[in-house]
Amino acid sequence: PIQVHAFPDQAAANAALRDGSVDAVVVDNQLIGFTDIPDVLSSLVQASARNVAVTALLDRHHVPQDERDAANDPTPLTLAVLQPAPPHRGENAAVAFVGVLLLYGQLFGYGIWVASGVIEEKASRVVEMLLSAIRPKQLLLGKIIGIGTLGLAQLIVISSFAIGLAFATNAIDVSSSAFGAAGLVIGWFILGFAFYATLFAAAGSLVTRMEELQNVIVPINLTILVSFFISIGALQDPNGRLQVIASILPTSSALAMPVRIVLGAAPAWQILVSLVALVGSTVLLVPFAARLYSGAVLRTRGRVRIREAWRAAE
Question: Is 92 exposed, middle or buried (0-12, 13-18, 19+ CB in 10 A)?
């Protein structure tokens, strides 16, 4: 608590400051300290000085008591916003964070699995027997669908466990946020995996050893990693220009758009454009990747350049 002392003159007040009896003194319109004045003390004294000045002014003009009370205790301002934040924003942000982590892990992990599977088939010459029975495009799509199904099954198991845990601990409103987010994660995983796995499969067909794989998939890895960090940024600013652009571009929408949807920041037209762009890009990418795959998958002597693989498939 603050204690107030009166001194007969400024000399006595200064002496009290020097021996540490007081922290500050008020003389006329000055607040004086010995070496410094604590911020908290300064704020309290300033507020008290304002109250004394206001009271003196009211006394001078003989203001009635009811008006004094109104001046000293004004009606507080009501709070309003032009665009209210969505309900349960903190809860939704937590759900979105978990969702984007799952998406990142699944897209990256199972994409690598696709590329590794292609290399193993090339190294063991199994691909030669397979291509004697089916076309390269069919083999490529079969591998993507097969591994993607495993990834989807694992994602469903993880999502179910997370929802069950949230239900048991009452961490979130399971009836709305959790089921909606789980559906978004599963849906965008299917679309994102189809896009990225096609790239991973084409990249894997260009090399013959696992040691060479990291070099050819660096651009894909960087794209996924950058998309992940942009998506994390969307948790704080879902309507930022970078986040909006990333949620529409097919190279990053699988990670960025679900976050914006869960936070209620993505209008319907942006979601539609994002879906069309991602699906359309995947449809266009499959024939391109299939041609590279066809031209490179049977070449087992070292790394194949993209141009060489393209020409070999003619």
Answer: buried
| Sign of the four-CA dihedral 185, 187, 190, 192 | negative
DSSP string, 71-135: HHSPPPPPP--SSPPPTTHHHHHHHHHHHHHHHHHHHHHHHHHHHHHHHHHHHHTHHHHHHTTS-
Copy the structure tokens of residue 170.
């009452």
Q: Token pair for residue 160?
A: 């179910």
| Cα of 2 vs its chain's centroid, Å | 47
Pseudo-torsion of CA 304, 306, 307, 313, nearest 10°? 80
* Contact criterion met (CB below 8 Å) for 177 and 262: yes
Instruction: Report the distance separating Cα 267 and Cα 300, nearest Å.
Output: 49
pLDDT digits (tens, 9 = 90+) for 40-90: 888 888 888 888 888 888 888 888 888 777 777 777 888 887 766 666 666
Distance CA 191, CA 228 (A): 16
Tell me if 103 sits within 8 A of 220, measured CB to CB: no
> What is the sign of the dihedral through the CA atoms of 48, 53, 59 and 64?
negative
Supply angle C-alpha 92, 159, 185, rounded to 5: 60
Q: Give the global pTM.
A: 0.68
DSSP category for residue 1? -
Token look-up 């490179």 returns 296
CA nearest neighbour of 218 among 112, 306, 293: 112
Q: CA 60, CA 58: separation in Å to the nearest integer?
A: 5
CA-to-CA distance for 283 and 179, rounded, in angstroms? 29
CA-CA distance, 234 to 226, in Å (whole number)? 12
Give 25's strand partners: 32
The domain spans of the chain are 10-72, 89-312
Residue 300 has pLDDT above 60, yes or no: yes
- Provide the 10 A C-beta neighbour count for residue 241: 8
DSSP 38: -
